[in-house]
Amino acid sequence: MHASSGDAEAVVAEANGAARRHPAFDDTRDLEDERRGFLGTAGEAAIRDADGRVVWDLDAYGFLDADCPPTAHPSLWRQSRLVAGHGLFEVVPGIYQVRGFDLSNMTVVEGERGVLVIDPLVSTETAAAALALYRRHRGERPVTGVLYTHSHVDHFGGVRGVVDAEEVAAGLPVIAPQGFLEHAVSENVYAGTAMSRRAAYMYGTALPRGPRGQIGSGLGATASTGTVTLIPPTLDITRTGQSETVDGIRMVFQLTPGTEAPAELNVHFPDHAALCTAENATHTLHNLLTLRGARVRDPHAWARYLTEAVHLFGAATDVVFASHHWPVWGRENALAFLSEQRDLYAYLHDQTLRMVNQGLTGPEIAERMQLPPALERAWHTHGYYGSVSHNAKAVYQRYMGWFDGNPAHLWTHPPAEAAARYVDFMGGAEEVLRRAHQSYVQGDFRWVAEVVHHVLFADPGNAEARALQADALEQLGYGSENGTWRNFYLTGALELREGSVGTPTSSVSEYMLDALTLEQLFDSLAIRVDGPRSWDADVTVRWHLPDGCGPRTLRLKNGVLTHVRGAGPAAGEPDVEITLDEPALRSLLLGRADLGELVAGGRARVTGDPARLAELTGHLTEPDPGFPIVTP
Asked: How far apart are CA 458 and CA 475, in angstroms?
């Protein structure tokens, strides 16, 4: 039996050493570009919330200045060092980026009176610190506009750190691609608990920062843990070619829905010969299906939009910058960068489908897929955040679904039940672990993780299995070039050794819930209905709002909560009718207010039996932000 030391095993250390000889290490241009235009950084390393809690530490990744140790892949170490660089940088005169203050970049474009802020980070605290850094170097210019490039939280969550709702109500424009609000709130609320739980693995939130722990996520260091907010857009971009001018800043937009986000855009600044590619072209292979969970993205459309970007803006672009990483300067370099990013997604799409039509399944395609040498030599195509393996499986899933066509897989046992049978067939837990220890010594950590998984799911209390699985996951993490793979492996090892670390951050903030439309709020309640427990329930609640749109009716029947606007057969006859305004309705449904108190305060009137509302809400369940992942 092996004894883990916490160091990299010889086979991992040797593989990481061999990776240093990759021909891409001869290309050092990124090391120069990442520092180009540096103007300064914050004097205080810790960014704190109102209670004094540290939500971001600029010095947390200082260890990356040392040589890469055997416990990290040298290519990921290099990428992590690049994305950990923090400060204010000039892209071109008039366009500046604050990088390293969160997972994403905040871009500031100077106008005639003030500044346009693009993608204000994850948290209000980090966004405010980024804006303060800009002002320290460029003057106290007011924010005169906000632009969200797409619907992921690291590109809008800090908005109230740079503007407030009153300024927006007074006419300050908030620009976003069509469909932004729907996707921003639905993605973060409907499956928000599960996504946040898995995001904690993906970004290694609970891992210690250091050579044996979290060293980055490939896309950035990690996500801040401050206050997530949202101000709804006031100006939608609805078509490619749409032009807008804010505070004298001319912009031409390209809509790119279905690429890195369901609602996304690129934007060209003709007066600066600069193209912002949002998250459609960055210094990594991106995810087609992120490990935290999302809809499968469309690599065919992704490639097509990058071709369109070159066609629309290539002849007038001297710099490409994005909402992650560092810019690419020079027209020739910029066009090569965009073209190689395009070829990356097109190749993965086309070659996966070629092999699908030869009868290969997702895992088989993932093992065979290999990028062309010309793409493999470019640093920005490496899988630091997405991966060739998982993206090939994502393309398969997009076209073919979960089923691989083999009838043996039509009706398999669920994990815990299957695990018990596997372990029994393999001669029992003791025999499985004996042979798994041999595989560990041989350096076959993938196989150890696969077979010991069955022992753990058959017997979660097996201490030897927990220890061996943790050791195997740790070694797989040490050898991963992909930042999110490393974080998943090492977080799994941490939880096996120390127990659940829960979900340190959540995207389901009050601001996010407040941004839901009433229909989305009703849908979010429907997701929480305990179906089996409510099979026999039949409750109808009608809401009357002073908005002139007619009543809204909620009905729980057959374990399904439906909502209907207006009266008629679909709405049915109500058991209770409640008249109130929309803020009171929202507070009631979100558990912030009590119906009796609203009635007593004159904010609601009830006709019928108010206990029927309590009966309906009694069938709602609460999500579990700490559900098990590495154990059943």
From this structure: 23
Q: Is the dihedral of CA 257, 150, 336, 244 positive or negative?
A: positive
pLDDT of 515:
81
Give 540-590 pLDDT, tens digit per residue: 999 999 987 789 999 999 999 999 987 777 778 899 999 999 999 999 998
- The pair of three-digit structure tokens given for residue 169, joined into one six-digit string: 């109500």
> How many CB atoms neighbour CB 412 within 10 A?
9
What pLDDT, on the 0 to 100 scale, is given for residue 508? 63
Quick: pLDDT tens for 435-463. 999 999 999 999 999 999 999 999 999 99
Name the phi and psi angles at 268, rounded to 5.
-105, 140
Task: Give the residues of the chain that fall short of pLDDT 50.
Answer: none
- Which residues on adjacent β-strands are paired with residue 97? 89, 107
Q: Name the amino acid, one letter, at 339.
A: S
Counted residue by residue, the chain has a size of 632
DSSP 3-state of 327 = coil
Calculate ∠ Cα 130-134-135, nearest 5°: 115
Q: CB-based burial of residue 95 (10 Å sphere; 0-12 exposed, 13-18 middle, 19+ buried)?
A: buried
Pairing of strands 560-565, 328-329: unpaired
User: What pLDDT shows up at residue 509?
Assistant: 72
Going from the C-alpha of 334 to that of each of 94, 314, 317, 329, the distances in angstroms are: 19, 8, 8, 6
Gap between the Cα atoms of 396 and 235, Å rounded:
36
Based on C-alpha coordinates, what's the Rg of the chain? Answer: 26
Among 24, 22, 30, which residue's Cα sits nearest to residue 325?
30
Instruction: Give, for 201, the enclosing helix (H) or strand (E).
Output: helix 192-202
Place of tokens 């809690």: 53
> Is the distance from CB of 493 to CB of 213 less than 8 angstroms?
no
Q: Are 626 and 503 in contact (CB under 8 A)?
A: yes
pLDDT of residue 2: 67
DSSP-assigned beta bridge partners for residue 584:
none
Report yes or no: 568 and 605 within 8 Å, Cβ to Cβ.
Answer: no
Cβ contact 168:234 at 8 Å: yes
Give the per-residue pLDDT at 619.
95
- Cα separation of 286 and 299, whole Å? 10
Instruction: Indicate the angle between helix axes 483-498 and 74-84, nearest 10 degrees.
Output: 100
What pLDDT score was predicted for residue 26?
A: 87
d(CA 465, CA 423): 12
